[in-house]
Amino acid sequence: MPVDTHGRWPWIAVALAPSAWGAALSRREALRRDDAWVALLGLPILLAHQTEEWVRPGGFLPFCNERLLGSDRPTWPLTERDGFHVNVTVGWGTAIAAAALWRRSAAPAAIVLWAPPRPAKGVGKRSSPPEWASASAPGCRWR
Description:
mainly alpha; 62% helix; disordered C terminus
């Protein structure tokens, strides 16, 4: 079954996710002692999240545009370029900054793990969990 990922970057997320999880799990004792797990788990969680949103089961861009924003086009008003910059530029950049800046500030890690909820998604729809629930569960972002 062909998959429309709306770009190549989601395949990079798929390829990097196992390595990111492997690196985090191999250092779990040190991460636990130092509380650095908060910062260093941001990237593996984000890559896994992006994989399910954009590759399997995928369909995030058409879902947002057609169902949430009421567009008759699957790639407008949110475009593939928007998806790239939100997920790669901001998402990966913040996750890497969280790991690099952990000793100075926990703010980047908090941004990655506890991103602001998106209330429009779950409002009035019993088929998807309410977004406010994800705000209380670190690393869990419901679609």
